[in-house]
Amino acid sequence: MKEPLLTIAIPTYNRAQKLDKQLAWAVNAIDGRWDEVELIVSDNASPDETPQVCEKWKAVSQGNLQVQRQQTNVGLVRNVLFCITKAQGEFVWVVGDDDTILADTLDWVLKQLWSNQKAGLSYLHLNVQTQNGYEGEILQERVYPFQNDKLALPGVKLFQECADLEEGWMLLITANIYATHTVRKAIARWPHIRNNLAFPLFLSGYAAMNGSMMVRAEPSLIYPHHTGSHLQTWLKTVYHDIPAAYWALYNEGYGADFIRRRILMRVSFLVYAIKFPIQFVKSMYVYLMAAILKPK
Questions:
Q1: Gap between the Cα atoms of 100 and 22, Å rounded
Q2: What's the rounded Cα separation, in Å, for the pair 248 and 204?
Q3: Among 17, 49, 166, 202, which one has the highest count of C-beta atoms within 10 angstroms of its own C-beta?
Q4: In this structure, what is the dihedral angle of CA atoms 73, 196, 276, 44, given to the nearest 10 degrees?
């Protein structure tokens, strides 16, 4: 059986209503193209009505929706990586269960994948529109100011440009589409990836340096900004996980100037050090090593 071009994989936990809405988008957007697009849900042992929602859309899709259910909650990172390991498509797009995908995005994505797969496309990065919560006003029309799509081979300089503009959007799983074989190699190369919430940054950087990278100028999805309810997790991500991801990219061959700049820009971490002293101590090695980096 011929492999599909694209796998759309939705990791989810305990958000049945949001998953229902996301599956409505996915099943209707794919309709008639199940030979091109594979659809997977990985349920992280949800205690709510998530299994019933999955069965509903499996029936609507005439059995094309594949449902994987974890026996226990394996955590966000491992659930996303599980999606990548299960993907049969040449490319994999892990889609969050609460990000709104704009109309015609899947059509555009498939067109780019067909057009550029022979040119070594390994990473397709989607521009994002931001919103105040799920129902509020639009905050940013597009997070990257590009007026035209950008394509680079290799994608290292384009990755660095996006990181310098706003690295955070490469942490958004829905904004990243990867060549499946490339991203699986990336997972195998970084032993600590399963414990690092900045794992998409490493996957993106690795994919960009091992093929071509494209960034879409027009926004493809809406990200709902939330309150600071996850402040502790976010502080750890910013001051520990992201620097560790950059250090892993340095070990893959990224230049010292770029890595030093991206790590040392966040040295004003007094609040982090006071609130999370154990993680602060763990972080110091990466900061000290970045400070003495010399160009290769």
A1: 8
A2: 12
A3: 202
A4: -10
* φ/ψ of residue 132, rounded to 5: -80, 95
Q: Three-class SS of residue 152? A: strand
Q: What is the pTM of this model?
A: 0.91
Listed in order, strand segments (DSSP E) in 70-204 are 91-94, 100-101, 121-132, 138-140, 150-152, 176-179
Domains along the chain? Answer: 6-229 (3.90.550.10), 230-291 (no CATH)
Place of tokens 């030979």: 35
N-term to C-term CA, the chain: 46
Instruction: Provide CB contacts within 8 A for 66, sequence distance 6+.
Output: 38, 39, 40, 41, 86
Amino acid at 9: A
Tokens of 33: 């193209």
- Answer yes or no: are the C-beta atoms of 262 and 241 closer than 8 Å: no
* Mean per-residue pLDDT pooled into runs of 10, the chain (296 residues): 91 97 98 97 98 98 98 97 98 96 97 88 97 89 96 97 96 97 98 97 98 97 72 81 97 97 84 77 79 74
Residues 20 and 53: beta-carbon distance below 8 Å: yes
